[in-house]
Records
---
Amino acid sequence: MSVKMEASAGKLSENTLMIYGIVVALVGTYLTYLNAVTGIAVFSFFGGIGAIAALWWGSDTIKHLCSYGLGTGVPSAGMVAFGAGAIAMIAGTKFGLASPIVTLVLAAIIGAVIGYCANNIINMNIPVMIFSLMKLSIVGALTMLGFAAMCTGTFMFNGLVIGGMTLSMEPAEAAAGGAQTFMVTVLPEFASSLIGGAALTVIFFLGAIALQHPFNACLGPNESQDRTLMLAIEVGFLSMFVVAVMSYAFLDIISATVGVVVSLIGWVYSYKQYIALSKRDAYAWLDAKPIIEVGGNE
């Protein structure tokens, strides 16, 4: 048995948000490929923009899923989304230029399986569970892929697991004339990579918290779609700033600094917009009457 609490209506429908979110997330991630085309990594920040688009869409999906209850499912839904998304994202990056598309498809499949298990095996009996967890898994996967591409400059598997190369030299047999020769072996370094160095874990939690927070913060009788979505953008840019700082370990100084500047500008603007919307919604409740205290013969 589930209890439905009506989620706030807005100008943008769930399907419209989904289309916008997926398109911008995929385009933003693919634009980071300009790094490989041009030989410079200044286009890495587009991955962060794509990740924010996915979070923006996902915050509305969280709202509609968690309207079947008291909102206590918001954190768990976010963690499930990024847990499933992490599997899809790591597996999907093995497919070269098709990686973002394959990641999306894998995430949808994994999310649908998790949603089916939750509804039909655990018997949560929430009408929108399967489709919502399918969408949230896509959100988690595209967010992690976008932030990973921003941090390293690529969405290819090798770029996420290999941090650099070292040369190993060993004496070999003497050449003609008695000259000493060496055998040189190129060894990949994994510990200093995004995945090998566990930096992907930070991206996981940055994205998961950014997905959970908007509806959790705006939940209540005066929740409005535009304010919740604006908060999603604001926390998205805040997460993007942290990823931009992390990118100094993987990108050149100029490219990483571009990401920092873009994320700061986006955060300042979205924060001001969110405060303005909060004042708007708070003002609408100023005429509310105080609660009458009952006592004595009353």
---
Amino acid sequence: MTAPRLSDFVKAYDVRGLVPQQLNHDVAWVLGWAFATEIAAPEGASAVVVGHDMRPSSPDLSGSFASGVQAAGIDVIAIGLCSTDGLYYASGALDLPGAMFTASHNPAAYNGIKLCRAGARPVGQDSGLAAVRDRAQEALDAGHVPATDATPGEDTRRDMLADYAAFLRGLVDLSGSRPLKVVVDAANGMGGHTVPAVLDTAAGLPALPLEIVPMYFELDGTFPNHEANPLEPENLRDLQAAVLEHGADIGLAFDGDADRCFVVDERGEPVSPSDITSMVAVREIAKEVAAGRDAADVRIVHNVITSAAVPEIVAEHGAVPVRTRVGHSFIKAEMASAAAVFGGEHSAHYYFRDFWFADTGMLAAMHVLAALGEQGRPLSELMAAYGRYAASGEINSTVADAAAITDRVRAWAEGHGAEIDTLDGLTAVHAGGAGDPMWWLNLRASNTEPLLRLNVEAADAATMARVRDEVLTMVRGSEDA
């Protein structure tokens, strides 16, 4: 049998493949062995922390990975069911490399692995993932791993949910909040496991002044109610309706592995992740200043497709915005390099220095709850100061020749006087002027799917729609030609 090509599903910053066609027992085992050989052993790690989500294939795949780690002579600490940020917590708290088995928001047929070094440091294409992939591929092609005299590692089981919940509670104090009614849509994902522990009393922590209205908390990796991807508007509709039905103050929607959190206000309207980024950034800047730090020394990371309002608001509060590529391994690396206190992405990934520079949707949700609960206005009024521009949201198009289309859009943008950069895909910025509204666009190929992603933002809705429609005509018209 021909060995699978790992390059088909070991992507820029994680592993994401079909089960069992791509990701199966043998592949998981050899990836565990390669991870231990390439990452854990050279860094002197005594063990690897392994966790998994609620997908039917996750327990067996994570077990196979753990067996591969042990075969390389490294111990395993298996923490069982957890959110991705729960795995990052374990990696940070124990100072060990980790592996999280999850395909996040992908459909039930998929599974995947998110890897990190000790202290939740990223493992991506440029930070070790390619080496792990290549070592594993060599072993698969050879039909065996190289002989070793290493004593097999041991396996230890440990539940870290209560420690994770207590740690987050220590970062954001919600005990003094005004009473809030909070609807939470866990989408049958890991939010159904973590929310009761962090925001309620399931982990034995004191009750908070929060009334949690649960939606789809039953762990079910077949996602019977809707896909666990709150980035898609149709997956927010149940939450929006429930917020209105219950007269709630806020709605929270988590993705499958609960490392992302989307917010719905009291009117049932989604709050832009860029606006959440700005609001949490302002809170983190204020906290640093209150601790005696000069705002000019505070850095906030944002990716290339967050709203232009994010760097503007960060700068207005005296701090320094740092722009980086899309993707958790890239933004985590930039967070650490810049010693940033916080970072945010358009996709509702939020990163915190105080969480080992890793992303945690739960901590971001707690910041929003704290901001809402410490004053009396509704969430829509609280967030009004942060939304400045009209945005298209991310629009995906399936294309056959992404490079040719991107070149065509670049030529069009340059013809309209836009400045170009290629930090991540194509970004074109038209500064605008009197009677000539500002706009910018980003066009980038997906790292995980055969798609070209378009984001457009402008000073007003009409300009945004015009630019969006002209570019989409080029993107999709090229495919029809």
---
Amino acid sequence: MKAATIFHLALGLLIISFFSLPPQSLAQDSDYLEPSEKYSREELAQMLAPIALYPDALLSQVLMASTYPIEVIEADRWVKRNPELKGVALDAALLDKAWDPSVKAMCHFRSILALMSERITETTNLGNAFLAQEAEVMDMVQELRAKAYGQGNLTTTSEQKVIVKKETIIIEPADLRVVYVPYYDPFYIYGPWWYPAYPPYYWVPPGVSVSIGISYWPGFYFGFAFGTWSYFDWHHHHIFIDVHKRPRYVRHDRWISKPGRWYHAPRHRRGVAYRDKSTARKYGQYPHRSKDFRRDTRGFPELRDRDRDGDRRVDDRTRIDRDKGGDDRSRIDRDRQERERFDRDKQRRERAERERKERERTDVDKQIRERVERDRQMRQPADQERRARQRVKRKQQQRSRNNVFNWIEDGRRERQSSERGRVSRQGRGDGSRSTGRSGGDDGGGHDDRGRNRR
């Protein structure tokens, strides 16, 4: 009985302590929860389709930069305020920026950087997918490249080299100093899209329409260092950083110390929440404490500065959330337009298929008619000869038939003539005898019988 009483008291104290926790901290924990499931293959194909055919060096920069959405937005705004900076002058100006090297690299690709900033939701999703599913993202890139290669739309050109090593497809610039950015229609380049519910995105230069095949944005001059300091290790499924190929826009003291695989830098994330808890824990991001738990920070400047930095991160997240709202609306419009475009393309393909089948049927009918006509022409001499033989045979049969009838007719006449002659001879003989004996009346009587017989 005593043990049961102690158990009930302990249980009551536990329940009271649970309900006495500050509600704000509980709310913050619940607000922090993000979807933990992985991106599906359909979603990965949708977000990677417009960039999977980028050269490896550029694609690796895009994937790394997408994990820092705040810095992407800041870099895009800075580039737009300084349109005159290009080449070496741009590299010199980027030295003082605290952005990640991948974000600085994208400053040379103003159009791509502008698309990444305008479509920050898609960019953030791409970065979250690469952080949580790096191997699956790289496998999907290879799958998309294999489909384009199988369709005959991914080949070596004057702008790029396509290298196939077993099951791996590598894309490199034809000239390391010039990087050409491809843009294309995913519905055409990969063949019939196999996930109709997840139509691929379109990343094209502003004011340019997508045409059939692969087109290229204007080339950019980067020098030797741009395209060689990062590349894919397709076998081990990660991005490799070559420390000896430091780009011109990164200072010595801000460059990595030794070569190896690329690792995400949480400080460049600028407080943007990760999509799932496992990724957040991996990079040291935990739920922020409520303001009630920070009263002891008053009077300590360094702690106040830390709190001010935390508030700035919260403001940044709020601004991103507002941007997400607008992006969601624009994304809905784009999805609707893309679905309509997909339906039109589907109808056009079905109409073309029907026309092709109709042409095939017409061709088959034409071939049958031609074959029948050839057979008829080939049989015509034989038919003519056969009809000629039949005519000759009929004439012969008719002639033979007429001869038989003539013989029959001639025989009857001959018999009748013979009969008449015989009777006449008998009559003449009897008359002479009767005349000699009794007179001419008997002879006349014989003549009357002969006439009656006739």
---
Amino acid sequence: MASLFSKISSFARSPQGRRAIEQAKQAAKDPRRKQQAKDAFDKLRGGKGKGGPAGH
């Protein structure tokens, strides 16, 4: 498992990783993206224990 974290940390330090991190930060600031994420989490939470597909 340590090798997975070392690969992730080395990627984060690379130019490509820095670009990806910056793009993720910019996307997180976008109000439309925030709403999309909130809707997705609400949909996941709402499906549990309320007779979702597993309950039928």
